Amino acid sequence: MNQKKTIAYLTDCAGIKDNALELLKNTKIDECYIDACHAPGYPDKNHLNYEEATKILDEIGAKNHL
User: Fold this and answer.
1) How far apart are CA 62 and CA 44, in angstroms?
2) 37 sits in which H/E element
3) DSSP structure class, residue 27
4) Are strands 31-34 and 7-10 parallel, antiparallel or unpaired?
5) Who has greater pLDDT, 2 or 45?
6) How far apart are CA 24 and CA 62, in angstroms?
7) Of the candidates 4, 14, 20, 17, which has an alpha carbon nearest to the alpha carbon of residue 34?
8) Contacts with 59 (C-beta within 8 Å, 6 or more apart), sequence order
9) With contact defined as beta carbons under 8 Å apart, do 33 and 10 qualify?
10) For residue range 17-64, what is the model confidence (pLDDT) as tens digits?
C-alpha cells in the first residue's frame, strides 16, 4: 500500500509569521511534530511551551500531533 502523507516539522516557531501560519492552515497536514520544550511562563523568543504549541496545533488542524 502506497500511502502519501503530509508531515510538518516545526521547531523554533515562537513568533511564527502570519503568512507561514496561513500556509500551514491551508495545507492538509497528516502529522505534525512541534517543538514545545519550555514550561508556561518561561520567556523565550524561539521556543514554545506546551500551551502555545497546542494553540498552533489547534489552528492548523493536523490529524495527528506529536
Assistant:
1) 25
2) strand 36-38
3) S
4) parallel
5) 45
6) 9
7) 14
8) 21, 24, 25
9) yes
10) 999 999 999 999 999 999 888 888 877 778 888 888 989 999 998 877
Residue burial 37-50, b: 16+ Cβ < 10 Å; e: rest: ebeeeeeeeebbbe
| 13 residue type, one letter | C
CB 32 within 8 A of CB 10: yes
**pTM to 2 decimal places:** 0.76
For cell 503568512, name the residue.
Answer: 19
C-alpha cell at 7: 508531515
The confidence score (pLDDT) of residue 18 equals 92
pLDDT at 1: 61
Cell numbers given for 38: 519550555
For residue 34, what are the CA distances in angstroms to 3, 10, 51, 62? 22, 5, 12, 11
